[in-house]
Design a protein that fits this description.
eight-stranded mixed beta sheet; Rossmann fold; globular; disordered N terminus; two-stranded antiparallel sheet; 18% strand
Length: 270
């Protein structure tokens, strides 16, 4: 993977960022933040300048998953500087509050906080800024779509019917604000026994691919249900960093390549 401009510049609110991409799920518990972290690291490992904005203001998990808990510094102009870690430019509410302190805000304050993360953070030059959205179709996804022109969004789901039903609701939100869906990712798609190599489809299988076909969207790939992925997030050493040659890390590397191809295809003129 070579460093490359994958599209046109965003508006002046993110003047140094070539593309902004939302990682979304309409339902919690599907592993969206795990996908965001490992996907960002896989993209950075391929030579891109990548930022990751943790927009889940109520439940920021990026600091834990990456094992970084320091407060961001301020630049000469007073804007915050993203926390640099493992090749990523990071920003999260978790860097600005006590670890166990709840964020008790109503919708307007959430939208204002997101605007500050976009406008009052000096992101510098980035090829791609991934925004890890909170689950659902509430204030934050809508505010993001209104604040910056997105290169697109990817939807993360699991194979169960209940998760797939919510995916369609999430897609409807992005359709209403005219943001392209670049594709669907099926997480926890299968479990591969490390002893006998038997593949177990714990939550079913193929639902994400079927939903993509039904909705006329690209299917970006499957990710396994694997203890190493869970352990890496809990210990602040994502699998892409902790075990880059593992099958799980290769899945994320392949996903990064497919996503870049889809980004370039979706943003071609005409």
């Amino acid at each position: 993977m070579q460093t490359a401009n994958v599209g046109t510049d965003t508006a002046s609110v993110l003047s140094g960022v070539d593309q902004t991409l939302a990682v979304a799920s309409a339902k919690g518990g599907v592993g969206k933040s795990t996908v965001s972290v490992n996907l960002a690291l896989a993209l950075a490992a391929g030579g891109l300048r990548v930022g990751l904005l943790d927009a889940d203001l109520y439940g920021p998990s990026i600091p834990l998953m990456l094992g970084v808990h320091r407060e961001p510094a301020a630049g000469p102009d007073g804007r915050l500087l993203p926390v640099m870690h493992q090749g990523l430019a990071l920003m999260s509410m978790g860097f600005l509050t006590e670890r166990q302190a709840p964020v008790i805000w109503r919708g307007p304050l959430l939208a204002q906080a997101l605007q500050q993360f976009l406008r009052q953070v000096d992101w510098g030059r980035l090829d791609l800024l991934l925004v890890d959205l909170p689950p659902g179709t509430g204030d934050i996804p809508l505010s993001l779509c209104q604040a910056v022109p997105l290169a697109g969004a990817v939807m993360v789901t699991t194979p169960q019917d209940v998760a797939l039903q919510d995916v369609e609701r999430g897609i409807a939100l992005f359709d209403k604000v005219e943001v392209d869906i670049l594709g669907i990712i099926e997480n926890m798609s299968y479990y591969l026994c490390p002893h006998c190599q038997t593949r177990h489809e714990v939550f079913g299988h193929g639902g994400g691919r079927d939903a993509a076909a039904r909705l006329g969207l690209p299917f970006l790939g499957e990710l396994p249900l694997e203890a190493g992925i869970r352990r890496g997030g809990d210990e602040g050493q994502p699998v892409v960093v902790a075990a880059p040659a593992s099958p799980a890390a290769r899945c994320f590397a392949d996903l990064a390549q497919v996503l870049l191809t889809q980004l370039r295809r979706d943003n071609q003129p005409g």
